[in-house]
UniProtKB/TrEMBL annotation:
UniProt keyword list: Signal
InterPro entries: SLH_dom
Name under which the protein is recorded: S-layer protein
Pfam families in alphabetical order: SLH (PF00395)
Domain SLH: 49-111, 183-246
Organism: Paenibacillus ihbetae
Signal peptide: 1-31
Amino acid sequence: MVLRHSKHIHSKKVVSAVMAGLIALGGGASAVSANETAGGTAASTTQSSLRAFSDVAAGYWGEKYIYQLAAQGIVTGNNGKFRPNDPVTQQEAVTMAIRFLSMQDQLGSGAATLPTNIKVNDYFTQYVQLAFQQNLLDKQKESGYSDEKVIWGAQKASREWITEMLVRSIGRTAEANAAKNNATGFADNAKISPDRLGYVNVAVELGLAQGVTGNKFDPQGAVTRAQLATFFSRAQAYIDTKYANQYEGYIASLDNGKLELYVDGKLQSFKLDAATAYFTSDSAKRQQFSDLKPYTKVVVVANNGTAAYVETTDPAQQVERFERTYARLSPNHVIWFDTGSTFEELSYDANTVFLDQNGNKIDPKTLAAGSLLTIERETFSQQKRIVSIRVKSGLVNKASEGVITSIDTVNKTLTLKDSTGYEDTFAWDEKTVIRYQNQILTPAELKAGYTVKFSVENSVLQSVEVAQSVERTVQGMLYSVEENGKTITYKRNGSTQLETKFLADKPEIIVSGVAKPVLSDLLADAVSGDKVLLTINGEEQVTKIEVTGRQMEQLDAATIVNYDPKTRWLTVRDANNQPRVIILDEKTKLEASTGTTLDKVEPLLGAGRKVSVSVIGTRALSLEVVYKVEGKVSSMNTSKRVISIVDANGKVEEIPYNTTLNVEIFGKSSASLADVRVGDEVSAQLSTNQDYLQTLKVKTAAQFEVVFTEPSKNRIRVKANGTTSDIYTDKATLTGDSGQAILLADLRPGTLVNISLQGNTAVAITQVKLTLGEITNVDASGNVVTVKDYAGNSQAIGVSTGVKVLRNGSTAANLSTLAVSDRVEIRKDIQGVTIINVMDKLERSFWQASNSEIQVKRKSINDNYRFALSDKVFVHQGDTTLSVQSLKENDNIVLYLNNGVVVEIVKQ
């Protein structure tokens, strides 16, 4: 059964009655509270009783509802505990149903008459009798109860029994009778009692009940207190229950120690104290008094004039604002406005606040005729009380704090909202000073949401100071990057001053046309550095560098004419046969087959050799002695011993080879040219003199499972299709499943990785993203499956590029074999096909466990009873997360195994 929380509180308070039963009732008459035993209704319950629930931790999903019910005087507790996971008996469930319908005043006072075989504890007799009278129970059906070992009232309530009583409680018996011959669609439909099929159908149709794991209804399964709360919570839309100490309305005024509520045309006043609990209708998280806002819609549950429970049901403040020109005041709280052709009068009261341009309170008698005023009044009452009147007209002179709501760089205006929610717009000019941590900013660097201190003179901003740590962007030119990668220096656009910032750990770098760029890919220069957009966080660290423009020129396959090692002047002939003089310096990035230092590269800079050079003016940013050609094989002429390769730009290179040609293909020893096909992606390694093809490396990619890693040797052992391979990683980039840089040691045994190789050399290793969780929706026609992962996040995963569903050794090429509640592992293979592995499911009784293994009790002598535990195993009961150590012997559990390892345990 899936627990679902109610999002709204209406005058009908179903959850209250439900939780009352859950808390006030235990396993029999001995479990009820003292005042109930005496025939009361727990009306004397106070907040202090709630605090005694030692098994309701802060943040528990039901905390909100327990506070609410304690405030309503329904909850009394049982020996200081709530016991949400205890099973509910039939007599308890009946009592809850009566309270659910608010029928306690119809209970009899004398001896109750029940069918002969219907035995209950004394406290419950009047409730059960009333349930029969109201047709919440079928007298003929219940009279057939014949278990002599367990009395009828102490019998654990089953899911199908609860479902019938619930459907009867909301008056849908006729619909259930009409649906009694329809199959439910659950896999265990045949196990549902025939006379309850109709009730299950109605409950499912109305959304009151859902199935459990494996598309089953589990009709005979026991119902816990928390689960029963779910049933009744879902039924709240179908009944109308009212509570005498509950009020719903709008907050008319709010002050420490007092709340005034506008309810049905009248004001109700409530005290507030330290025990008052605050919540919102769309969250189970407890709020603070400071989160309450005036003129919002709330529900108040009060005890003796004190608000014990306050829930915001609509956070929108019900106020309207408009402007008027002030004329004069009259006695009896009347204010007059000049409309131009006549006068308009409005009434205000003693609670109306008058404010000047700076937001300070003023005496309304100080208002000057002709002033432009902003009127704010509430809209939830017929009176439409004026809440505040603020002076807006005239030249504004003020110093205040506020939040930027918008920036208009065209009209040079800034709109700010102060702490009262009032917005005003001011202009800036060239004299306006904008600061952030002693730095001068431009208006364009301000963003909506910034908290600022500001001063205004004659309605013009004089200063704006960002008063919080913020993230901002700066445009400028990159001047230098420190060699240790800790700082960068730049020149802001429009400024001649240099600014230096620390770099955040692993800053994001974006350079168009460069895959996974690093700091060394940035071009820093005193005159022609990269144009960059820098993102700077609140700690003044650069977190992102985006190159927006660069003046670099690329010369591909230029032919060397001459090189002077003394001056480091390199003369080349470009593709247009024009001479170019290029100067190498200590910052020039070098690359050749012999190395990446100048002493290794200089011997190769002879006349006639081809090089690729990137330059700014005459300065060489990078130089590569062409020693390889990358692209796709377009043709192979074995008689002339020539291979044609087309590069990414469509240029075809014809490269001769000789009998010593070495061919590398991963996984294939003694590869030859006969193993290469037209269309293969290759890296053609040239000889030192660039005159023939020395090594042809075929590019491949595959998915592997990590066996182990050896970081000290830059080696990883992997396996795929039963074959184990050792791969060196010293020339590979390593990334995690979110694209982040990782170390070889970060890859654990069992991890899946995609490895891209050139021949036998790994150039990229990427961790495969795995999504493990429960399927919540399957859209086979739309090729989308929705999964709730073990972190509680819901993900919609599209499979339009292909899918393979693996279940019990069989494979399906579509989503039709998947079902809601299946546990799955989802990944993409190397071709991008989505692989969905449906986990094995095993129901057993718990025996014992360690940190790495769980042992269960066997159903037969041949059963496996020992299973390895994932180091991130998810253990839970409903929405409550548990630990393996919290499991007790004989607990009924469901294990979900992924490749033989337990990744999820569900306690029943």
